[in-house]
Design goal:
transmembrane, membrane, mainly alpha, 65 residues, transmembrane helix, single chain
Length: 65
């Protein structure tokens, strides 16, 4: 059975869900402030999304053999 999404995109989806849940619940570890923790989570989620888009565009431009 083929998954509708590439397996590499599943951790990115989990990261977005975690960032949204943390943003809504105001959770943060004791060594980071809430703002720093949510900033790191959302930044990582954005970077992972940009990487997936970049990789998809690069793979789409490859010639088919």
């Amino acid at each position: 059975m083929k998954l509708p999404l590439p397996i590499i995109s599943l951790p990115t989806i989990v990261l977005w869900v975690l960032a949204i849940i943390v943003g809504l619940t105001n959770y943060h570890p004791s060594f980071l402030s809430y703002r720093a923790f949510t900033g790191i989570l959302f930044s990582l989620a954005v970077l992972a999304t940009v990487y997936l888009i970049w990789r998809g565009i690069r793979n789409a431009n490859k010639p088919v053999r």
